[in-house]
Amino acid sequence: MSPNSSSSHIIPVILSGGSGSRLWPVSRSSFPKQFWPLLGDRTLLQDTARRGADLQLAAPIVVCNQEHRFVIAEQLREVGINDARIVLEPVGRNSAAAIAAAALLVAETDPSAILWVMAADAAISRPENLPSALSTAVAAANKGYIVTFGMTPSKAETGYGYIELGQEFSDLPGVYAVSSFVEKPNHARAAEMRDSGRHLWNSGMFVFAAKTMLDELKRYEPTILQAVGHAVANRTADADFQRLDSVSFATSPDISIDYAIAERTQHAAVVPADFGWSDIGSWDALWELSPKDADGNATKGDVFLDRSRNCYVRSDGIVAAVAGMDDAIVVVTQDAVLVAHRDRAQDVKHLVARLSEAGRKEAVSHNRNYRPWGFYESLIQGSRFQVKRIVVEVGQKLSLQKHFHRAEHWVVVEGTALVTRDAEKIMVRENESIYLPLGAVHRLENPGRIPLTLIEVQSGPYLGEDDIVRIEDDYSRN
């Protein structure tokens, strides 16, 4: 690309704070949709990060939930991005605070640098059209505008916001004033805007100079700027991460950048673009983007269909067989099944809310739980016992810890384990086991060259994950 600003001064900013509840049961707050390969071999986060890298832009800034930091770092490394600045939010305060943090960090060294802000969980199907649109947006950002991209509506979508086009700027070809922003409409209003020729889908991407955004925050949301300013000034370095000060950041208002700035600024602009953007905000949207068979069905995983049309069927575990269904969504995971009509795909978030109200853990967490050292998953649980599979990556280790309410028995099924048990250090190999009595101080390490897999049998009156006293931890957890 050849925007008016040097590409090294265009900094991708990736916001990775959403939970993607409308793509439940695959996407949950413990492991949301941006970490899943929904449209190919790479995850949505990886695709997003590669956009900037492929255009030879500056190293990205990723603003994320601190609980996801190791997943993000690993997924970026997998696609060759080793220089990202990963900024950890101690609490969620919506996109305005996240963008303020990124702008403040950039302004420390170059207030005129251009930020290209995008969500980690959107898709672009025509990336070849992106450089031209970005170049146009950068030209406007260099003149002090806060620019977003607008997509021509292809249907009466109720899950997106809309932008009403104003006049084209005479000195900026392809850039238009924003007449108004329209929040997610009902179906009748969405159809009206689709047909108007004056409305575009709001992509939620923004392009602006760091100084411009900070000036507008000072004008419209000084409380956010002050709170986040203190959080950035008092940040600490934690391994490869920048950890924002928790006390200061928590005082920031919880508000989106749309409400805080975009709908109030006098410098809003929009670039109509055609790079195939989708926020993949529902299973119906994913069906539209996925390859389909002759009957219009999109499938992934172990799936069998019979006399079914225009369905989206996915299984991440057991076989999913669907017969005689039209326009259905069927999603199978290890611990949950979703069945819905494609016309009601937006309603999945209401179902997740009901699950949360009922106290169901499936609403927010998967059976497989990722940790910085690997992952674990529950295989079976009774009133006083639980069986888990634990996988520890090469060179990683769990915290030195103890439990007040449970004993554990570890059986190594693949790899080699180095186990600390009180004053002992014991090597446990495949088909060998070790017992850890209640109260024993213990640690599990993988000193080998392949991932370590073991079966853990817990027994005791209380088996909750909060029965852990960490004595020493390499990952700065409490």
Automatic annotation (TrEMBL):
Transmembrane segments: none annotated. This is mannose-1-phosphate guanylyltransferase. Belongs to the mannose-6-phosphate isomerase type 2 family. GO terms for biological process: GDP-mannose biosynthetic process; polysaccharide biosynthetic process. It holds the Pfam family NTP_transferase. It is an enzyme of class 2 (transferase). PANTHER family: MANNOSE-1-PHOSPHATE GUANYLYLTRANSFERASE. NCBIfam families: GMP_PMI (TIGR01479). Its EC number is 2.7.7.13. It comes from Gluconacetobacter johannae. Residues 359-473 form the Mannose-6-phosphate isomerase type II C-terminal domain.
